[in-house]
Amino acid sequence: MKTDQRLWRTLHVLIHMGHHPAPLTSQTLAKMLNTHAVVVRRTLACLREKQLIQAEKGHGGGWYLLKPLSQISLREVYEALGEPAILLLTPENNPPGCLVEKAVNQALDDVLQEARNLVLARFADLTLAHIEEDFQALLQSTEVIAG
Q1: Total count of domains within the chain
Q2: What Pfam families does this protein map onto (predicted)?
Q3: Residue 73, SS3 per DSSP
């Protein structure tokens, strides 16, 4: 089963956007992610619809944040991307004909819903500024080692 990397890749791009005062082109962002600019535009269009970012056309144009990193939560980004699957565990698609299967599905559904709710609550508490702080700490530790 193929995993969905859009949340990770989008957060990566948004942190870079937070560090650049000028708009970043789809081509520049695509190079950062080792992908095609069309993939970047398609993904970022979801964020534009939720008014997290905007694109400026023409020479010197590109994508830019509409809010500071401290005002964008992981949950907002996650929801803008269409709420990709958090956990890849899923029940059988067939309607349960067996009562044991029905009980298993119900028990797992309850646990998975609980886990999803916990993840979403944590996503709501975490802003992109928190990730940016972690980036700065990593950058500082790298500079200390390199220096």
Answers
A1: 1
A2: Rrf2
A3: strand
Asked if residue 64 belongs to a domain, the reply is: yes
Return the pLDDT at 144. 66
Residue 1 covered by a domain: no
User: What is the per-residue pLDDT across 97-110, written as a single tens digit (0 to 9) for each?
Assistant: 788 888 888 888 88
Residue 92 has pLDDT above 70, yes or no: no
- Tokens representing 100 are 């044991």
What CATH number does the domain containing 123 carry?
1.10.10.10
Burial of 117 by CB count in 10 Å (0-12 exposed, 13-18 middle, 19+ buried)? exposed
Q: Yes or no: say if 64 and 54 are a contact pair by the CB < 8 Å rule.
A: yes
pLDDT at 145: 66
Residue 64 three-state SS: strand
Tell me the residue type at 16.
H
Residues 6+ positions from 127 with CB-CB distance below 8 Å: 69, 70, 71, 72, 73, 74
Q: Is residue 133 part of a domain?
A: yes
Distance in angstroms (rounded) separating the CA atoms of residues 25 and 82: 23
